[in-house]
Specification:
five-stranded mixed β-sheet
Length: 424
């Protein structure tokens, strides 16, 4: 872990060029690497030596962003993947198999919800979904003998709910199970889940970490704090026949989880990012601490403006006093939550879509959490097939607008909202 402050780590961690080497992280656009000794390559394949031998398992450019994000989160290691969805998938498959069970928040990102609720059951892994604000005793009751993980988001997408991370960690650990936290929206600038008991963190790096909507990616970060030798995780604590009987917990200690994710799952599933995407991410990370501060500053002002507008029915932003999750925001994200807000336009679906269509600066995009202001009306896009009644059951009213506040001048953002509201 770097000795520098988090803002410095955004810029410096993971790459320390020597005399005469490139100052900027270079793109190593190569699938393979030359060695002069066959014995040396054999040691790489037996995990007896560190090094790069095939980009599916590791690449110098990807290595930089892995080390940098591990430093930002305070972990012992990280694995860069081809997408955030791949990171979430590997985080579970690394410790679960057919016949196992996990617990997950019911307000998590829709893609993750489908992964856990539809696809993983086909592989024999069942999921119990629980409310973000579930009581401790009720959460305790959801555990089974075969429960292997608990998965939550530090700030849910798009509902913007904040779970009590410490409580989830406490209950998970009481059952000998790790807590996995998706920290995509909050980023390590605003929330450090490991400091509240989480064991594994995942991100869709395509969002704030990249910041520019130019490169897909995901990452898994290992805290190194969980005891995998508790009898529940034989994949980590018993011999792996595909590596001549190596035992990850014996050989790699605190880094057992993240090492297995790389050398076994990435080897077999191949959800490998390209070096160019790693390079673009490394550039984005350099300004993460600056961008997140501006996103939150702008979002707060936009939320305050909307809360006083007579054409707006409600505003949801956890950093605002009076919000249901304001106390949790103060506990886990006192410096700000993120740049995403949601609000309801009076007049329902037609008024919401009319408002969205009249925006000029804010673009209608499916993406979220990048430098430019973006807007989406879920009821007419991502959830278009649902009736108004079904939308209500899903917590997505026909009047709901998801607004990803960018880093432009906030006066321009508000002026754009104002002119659009005047036309409905």
């Amino acid at each position: 872990m770097s000795q520098y402050k988090i803002n410095t780590n955004c810029v410096q961690a993971g790459y320390n060029p020597e005399n005469g080497q490139p100052r900027v992280t270079p793109i190593v656009q190569s699938t393979t690497y030359r060695y002069t000794s066959g014995e040396e390559v054999g040691k790489l394949f037996d995990l007896e030596k560190d090094g790069f031998f095939y980009t599916r398992l590791g690449n110098p450019t990807s290595d930089v962003v892995e080390k940098r994000i591990a430093a930002l989160e305070g972990g012992v290691g990280a694995l860069f993947t081809s997408s955030g969805q791949a990171a979430s998938t590997l985080s579970i498959l690394n410790i679960c198999q057919a016949g196992d069970h996990i617990i997950a928040g019911n307000a998590i990102y829709g893609g993750t919800f489908n992964l856990f609720g539809v696809t993983l059951p086909k592989l024999g892994i069942e999921t119990t979904f629980v409310a973000t604000d579930i009581e401790e005793a009720e959460l305790e009751a959801q555990f089974k003998e075969n429960t292997k993980a608990v998965f939550i988001e530090s700030l849910t997408n798009p509902a913007l709910e904040i779970p009590d991370i410490e409580m989830f960690a406490k209950v998970a650990h009481a059952h000998g199970v790790p807590l996995i936290v998706d920290n995509t929206f909050a980023t390590p600038i605003n929330c450090r889940p490991f400091e509240f008991g989480a064991d594994i963190v995942v991100h869709s790096t395509s969002k704030y970490l990249d910041g520019h909507a130019v490169a897909l990616g995901g990452i898994i970060v290992d805290s190194g704090n969980f005891d995998w030798n508790n009898g529940k995780y034989p994949g980590l604590s018993t011999p792996d026949p595909s590596y001549h009987g190596i035992v990850y917990t014996d050989t790699f200690g605190p880094a057992a989880y993240i090492t297995k994710a790389r050398v076994q799952l990435m080897r077999d599933l191949g959800v490998t990012p390209g070096p160019n995407n790693a390079f673009l991410l490394s550039i984005g990370l350099e300004t993460l601490h600056l961008r997140v501060e501006r996103h939150c500053e702008n979002a707060t002002k936009v939320a305050e403006y909307l809360s006083h507008h007579d054409k707006i029915e409600w505003v949801n932003y956890p950093s605002m006093k009076g919000n249901k999750y304001y106390p949790m925001a103060q506990k886990y994200m006192p410096n700000g939550t993120c740049g995403v807000i949601s609000f309801g336009v009076k007049g329902g679906r037609e008024a919401a879509m009319n408002f969205m269509d009249h925006l000029k600066l804010a673009a209608i995009v499916v993406h979220v959490a990048d430098a430019k202001t973006g807007v989406l009306h879920p009821a007419s896009t991502t959830h278009r097939q649902l009736t108004d009644e079904q939308l209500k059951e899903a917590g997505i009213g026909p009047e709901l607008i998801r607004f990803s506040v960018g880093i432009e001048d906030v006066k321009d953002i508000i002026a754009d909202i104002e002119q659009a509201l005047e036309q409905i």
